[in-house]
Recover the amino acids of this structure.
C-alpha cells in the first residue's frame, strides 16, 4: 500500500510541475510576441522617432549624475613615515643568580622595589665559610711569625759566616769551619724563602675564602627595579636558578624588523614617535639607535632598535607599542587628498570635471604618501579642482554633481540635471 501511495505522490508532483511550466511558457511567448509588435516595448520606433513605452526613457548604459565632493590641489609640506610595532623591553634586564650554592637566610627586596647597583638583595648562610676564614687568618699569622724567626736565624748565620771569613783570611780558622758557617748561612736563607712562600700560600687561601664569603651576599648588578622575585628565605639556591630579576627602565628599547624596500629610509638618529595603549593619544619621543648592517636571508629583513627615554618610568617593559618613524620630508610641493587618487585603466591619477560637469581622467606622477595627502610630482598644479570623495566609483564619461545640486536643473545642457530635449510627435502634453 505504501508503495502505491509513493507512486501516486510522484505522479501528482510531476503533473503539477508540467501544468505550471506550460502556463509560464505561454505567458513568455505572448510577451515576446507583444514586444515584436509596432509600438510595443522594444519594437520599431513609433511615429515621432521615439520608441513606445513612455517618452524620454533612458537608453541602455545610461548612468545618472553621481554626487561627489571636489577640492583644489594645494601647495604644502608632506612627510613620509614608517610604522613598526613591537613590545618594549628594558635597557638592561638581568637575572640575579647566586655565585655559590646554599640555604637562603634572607631576601631584602620585594617585587617592584627600586634598587641600586651593589645593593644587597639576599644572603646565603655562611657560618662554615666564616670559620674557615678564621682558620686561614690564624695560619697566616703563624706563617708571618715563622718568617720573622727565619729572618732572625738568617741574621745570626750571616754574622757567623762573616766572622769565620775574617778569621780564615787571617789564617786563624780552618777551611772546613768556614765552609760549615757558609752552609748554615745558606740554609737559613733557604728557610726564610720557604717561610715566605708558605705565608704567600696561606694568604692566597685566605683570599679565596674571603671571596667565597662575599659570594654569599646576593647583590644587584645594575640600577633598576625588581621585576621578579623567585625565592624566599629558607629555600636552597644555586647558580642554576635566579633569585630575582632586575630591570633598568630608565630607557626602553623596541626591537623591530625592517623589510628590504624600507631599509634605505631608516637611518641612525632619525626621530621616532611612540604610542602605547596605556596612554591613548599621548606621544613619547624616541630615536633610532641601531640598525643591523646585514639582512636575515630567510626573511629579507634587518633588525632595528629604537630607544625611548623613560625618565619618569611611565613606560613599562612588555607594553605593546606603535612607533612611527619620520623618514622623509618634502616642502613646497603640490598635494591632493589621498581619496582623490585612483587606479584607472592601469594608471594612477585623479578625476577633473569640465564646465558641463563631465569628468576626465588625468594621469599624474606621484611622490610621497601618508594617511591624508599624496604628493603630485607631475601632471597637476596647485589650484586645479579635482574629485575627492566618490572618485573611486567614477568611470570615463560620467556626469557629476555637488551635494545639494538638483538633478534636472535647467540652464546647462548636458549638465548634472540631464538634457531638456524637445518632445517628439505623438507624445502627449507636458
Amino acid at each position: 500500500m505504501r508503495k502505491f501511495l509513493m507512486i501516486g505522490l510522484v505522479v501528482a508532483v510531476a503533473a503539477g510541475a508540467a501544468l505550471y511550466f506550460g502556463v509560464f511558457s505561454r505567458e513568455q511567448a505572448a510577451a515576446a510576441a507583444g514586444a515584436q509588435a509596432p509600438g510595443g516595448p522594444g519594437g520599431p520606433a513609433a511615429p515621432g522617432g521615439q520608441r513606445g513605452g513612455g517618452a524620454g526613457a533612458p537608453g541602455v548604459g545610461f548612468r545618472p549624475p553621481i554626487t561627489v565632493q571636489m577640492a583644489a590641489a594645494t601647495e604644502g609640506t608632506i612627510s613620509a613615515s614608517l610604522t613598526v610595532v613591537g613590545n618594549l623591553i628594558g635597557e638592561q634586564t638581568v637575572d640575579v643568580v647566586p655565585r655559590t650554592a646554599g640555604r637562603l637566610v634572607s631576601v631584602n627586596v620585594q617585587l617592584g622595589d627600586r634598587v641600586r647597583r651593589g645593593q644587597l638583595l639576599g644572603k646565603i648562610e655562611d657560618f662554615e665559610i666564616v670559620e674557615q676564614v678564621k682558620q686561614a687568618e690564624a695560619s697566616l699569622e703563624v706563617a708571618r711569625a715563622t718568617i720573622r724567626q727565619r729572618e732572625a736565624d738568617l741574621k745570626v748565620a750571616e754574622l757567623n759566616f762573616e766572622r769565620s771569613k775574617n778569621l780564615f783570611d787571617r789564617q786563624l780558622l780552618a777551611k772546613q769551619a768556614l765552609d760549615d758557617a757558609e752552609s748554615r748561612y745558606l740554609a737559613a736563607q733557604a728557610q726564610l724563602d720557604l717561610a715566605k712562600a708558605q705565608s704567600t700560600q696561606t694568604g692566597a687561601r685566605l683570599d679565596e675564602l674571603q671571596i667565597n664569603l662575599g659570594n654569599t651576599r646576593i647583590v644587584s648588578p645594575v640600577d633598576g627595579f625588581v621585576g621578579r622575585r623567585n625565592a624566599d628565605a629558607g629555600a636552597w639556591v644555586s647558580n642554576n636558578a635566579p633569585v630575582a630579576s632586575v630591570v633598568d627602565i630608565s630607557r626602553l628599547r623596541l626591537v623591530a624588523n625592517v623589510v628590504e624596500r624600507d631599509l634605505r629610509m631608516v637611518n641612525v638618529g632619525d626621530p621616532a614617535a611612540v604610542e602605547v595603549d596605556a596612554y591613548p593619544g599621548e606621544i613619547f619621543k624616541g630615536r633610532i639607535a641601531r640598525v643591523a648592517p646585514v639582512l636575515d636571508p630567510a626573511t629579507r629583513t634587518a633588525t632595528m632598535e629604537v630607544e625611548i627615554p623613560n625618565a619618569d618610568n611611565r613606560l613599562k617593559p612588555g607594553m605593546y607599542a606603535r612607533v612611527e618613524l619620520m623618514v622623509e620630508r618634502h616642502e613646497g610641493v603640490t598635494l591632493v587628498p589621498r581619496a582623490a587618487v585612483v587606479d584607472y585603466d592601469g594608471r594612477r591619477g585623479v578625476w577633473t570635471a569640465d564646465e558641463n560637469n563631465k569628468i576626465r581622467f588625468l594621469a599624474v606622477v606621484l611622490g610621497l604618501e601618508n594617511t591624508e595627502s599624496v604628493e603630485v610630482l607631475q601632471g597637476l598644479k596647485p589650484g586645479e579642482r579635482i574629485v575627492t570623495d566618490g572618485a573611486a566609483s567614477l568611470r570615463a564619461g560620467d556626469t557629476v554633481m555637488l551635494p545639494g545640486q538638483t538633478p534636472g536643473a535647467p540652464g546647462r545642457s548636458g549638465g548634472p540635471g540631464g538634457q531638456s530635449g524637445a518632445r517628439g510627435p505623438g507624445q502627449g502634453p507636458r
Summary: The CA atoms of residues 155 and 355 lie 123 Å apart. The radius of gyration is 49 Å. Confidence is low (pLDDT under 50) at residues 23-60, 410-430.
